[in-house]
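[stage:ingest] chain + small molecule (adenosine-5'-diphosphate)
[stage:ingest] validated
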Amino acid sequence: MKTAVFPGSFDPITLGHVDIINRGLPLFDQVILAIGTNSDKKYMFSLEERVRFLEETYKDEPKIKVMTYKGMTVDFCRKQNAGFILRGLRNAIDLEFEKSIGQTNFKMSGVETLFFITSSGKSHISSTVVRDVIRNGGDYHFMVPDAVSKE
Ligand code: ADP
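[stage:predict] done
[stage:export] tokens:
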């Protein structure tokens, strides 16, 4: 069974995440959407809400499993028998950041990171922008899946 972990905060899940997840899905038997929990970080949506958004978005996709974890992503991958991490690249800043994390993870564990370059027209979407728009009462629905829109 070939398993990939897609780790993130998903605060909230956006159509940018959905793009990467859907494109990674055909390559694996199982993709675990893993919400990393960090007690120092302040989130807009609670862990329960973030889990619910992911579960609702992928309720008809049996290859997707939603989980939460604490600690290092590679330790979580090992526990889940996942040999791959899935990540998205929007721009050169993402690349620089992800490069060192990917290299470190591989050195520590042999877990490979697979990168997808964001689909054209989606690289402006980020959870940070969505949260800013929500805070300011703007229209954010075109950037998120229906499960988040309904909130
Ligand atoms: P983190 O808190 O680890 O940055 P995020 O939930 O913000 O987690 O993002 C998780 C992954 O989704 C990252 O690999 C990020 O680059 C990717 N991602 C987020 N938005 C987009 C987008 N618009 N296009 C492609 N990848 C994206």
